[in-house]
Specification:
With 269 residues, this protein is an alpha/beta fold. It is built from 9 helices and 12 strands. The strands form 3 sheets. A 6-stranded mixed sheet has the order 8-7-9-10-11-12. The chain has a 4-stranded mixed sheet with strand order 4-3-6-5, with helices on one face. It has a two-stranded antiparallel sheet with strand order 1-2. It is globular and about 55 Å long.
Length: 269
């Protein structure tokens, strides 16, 4: 599939069990790297992530954390490769440093952990902005949005070990998709790509291949998304947060249908 070493590596010497017995084999496995975020030379967070689409990751993470309000407020971005990992080195306007200080985290550890090391429990359940009214969608639109993900999942097709977040719009189809070993990272990358391309999250469906936790609802709301759909069920806190923000949350979206958990008025019929 033309994967780069930054995206996936070949794991050889494995043993495979099939119906006819054991056989030797190999498989592409996703790359995973420590990625640090710094702003104006001030270290902020470390995430374990797939080292692809890093500019999107930097932008989306910064927006989701409220460090910047628009992608344009990141005045400069450098991707620095080191023997230990990758630094996403950003420069933001001095006026945004106050927001940075309020969101200081110490993130280091499990892949894609969205809430590790929060200094205040209140940050984990922080209030969200009300999402826009958005547009009404037909049930067939949700089915089409979810069906569009798998053919575009290049990394998952090769490794069977990746999450994806995509944006689908009626009449236009799948406009953006990003993958990562962490579902939070995949959504941050999608948010960054959409912000950089000027895509309006309220104009369609944010679709994901994972369960929906509260962190994903928080990120979707900050994107301005109005409909978040996923293949698995949400958590109770995710439902509470989605309802409060006015976000339509759809889960268990499979070939045979889906379930609408909050704000069903955006679905026709």
């Amino acid at each position: 599939m033309g994967l780069t070493v930054e995206e996936a590596v070949q794991a050889g010497g494995i043993r495979c069990w099939r119906a006819d017995g054991w056989r030797p084999g190999s498989r592409m496995v996703p790359a995973e790297t420590a990625i640090s975020f710094s702003y104006n030379r001030l270290g902020h967070a470390v995430m374990m992530a797939t080292p692809a689409d890093l500019e999107d990751f930097a932008t989306g993470f910064s927006l989701a954390e409220g460090i910047v309000e628009t992608a344009a407020e990141i005045e400069e971005l450098e991707v620095i490769h080191t023997p230990l990992g990758i630094e996403l080195r950003m420069w933001i306007a001095p006026g945004r440093l106050g927001a940075l200080e309020m969101r200081r985290r110490r993130l280091a550890g499990p892949t894609g952990c969205g809430l590790c090391g929060l200094e205040s429990l209140a940050e984990a359940v922080r209030s969200l902005p009300a999402v826009p009214q958005g547009r009404r969608l037909a049930p067939a639109d949700i089915a089409a949005a979810m069906a569009s993900l798998a053919p575009a999942q290049r990394l998952h097709g090769a490794t069977r070990a990746m999450h994806a977040a995509g944006f689908w719009q009626p009449g236009r189809g799948l406009l953006a998709l990003r993958e990562d070993v962490g579902r939070h990272n995949a959504l941050d990358k999608l948010a960054g790509a959409m912000a950089r391309d000027g895509l309006d999250a309220a104009a369609g469906v944010v679709a994901m291949t994972s369960r929906v936790s509260v962190e994903l609802v928080q990120k979707a709301a900050r994107m301005g998304a109005t409909v978040l759909a996923a293949v698995s069920a949400p958590t109770a806190l995710a439902l509470q947060s989605a309802e409060a923000a006015g976000l339509t949350l759809i889960g268990v979206a499979r070939d045979d249908g889906f379930e609408v958990f909050t704000q069903p008025q955006r679905l026709e019929g």
